[in-house]
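Progress against Task 2.4 (sequence-to-structure conversion) is shown through the following example record, which the project officer requested during the mid-term review.
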Amino acid sequence: MLIMKIITSKNNRASKQNMIRVVAVIVFNLDNYIRSCKLLPDGRTLIVGGEANAICIWDLGQQPRIKAELTSAAPACYALAISPDSKVCFSCCSDGNIAVWDLHNHAIVRQFTGHTDGASCIDISQTPIINMDPSINNVLFSFIIIIQGRQLQLHDFSSQIFSLGYCPTGDWLAVGMESSNVEVMHCSKLEKYQLHLHDSCVLSLKFAYCGKWFVSTGKDNMLNAWRTPYGASIFQSREQSSVLSCDISSDDKYIVTGSGDKKATVYEVIY
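Structure tokens generated for the chain above:
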């Protein structure tokens, strides 16, 4: 049984230039890591996946509870993505498959088999027909752009890909690397930026819905926010352990992170 409590921050510790503050910390009493968490646009539904075969759907009302569990044959879920209409959840599984879940019926409706090793992360465009999925295969470091189940492009890199994000404007892709770099590349032009603030591998990455900035998290305990596309630092925040996942609310006012010490932290972005 998964148990969670929400702690409202009294001190509201702020980060660089007081641009963000912690408004809540969610503590999970789990035996395993949280690898990914997604907050739905309704503001009260949180989907959590990690080193377990069940993905948990939480109702974050006054008395938080598990509404449902999505159970697969894979022993772990490495990453989650939600369709723009919030009706479908994509889960990257440790067996290399990508499961597609109906969030209303809590059932698998489709499964993609794309990798011999685990599928490490995924992102979806706002047009809901494109998804990007990298492998953690130690021989070929690449990610694939898929349209309607058909492979469109294959990009190769010299370092293992741990995270990626697709800018809602449709112009930019950002990739978080094992090498600690973030690479931002234009979708149709030969334009690329290499960013470096992390001291270790970049574990998660997410663009704001406005597309003007994005955040990345790392094994170095850091949450970094960058200006799109050239990577000027906007703010930074250090947590107590590795920050394994992150997400941004649809109004760009809140950031949620999942960490190795079994906590999810909610930040308020102060403009």
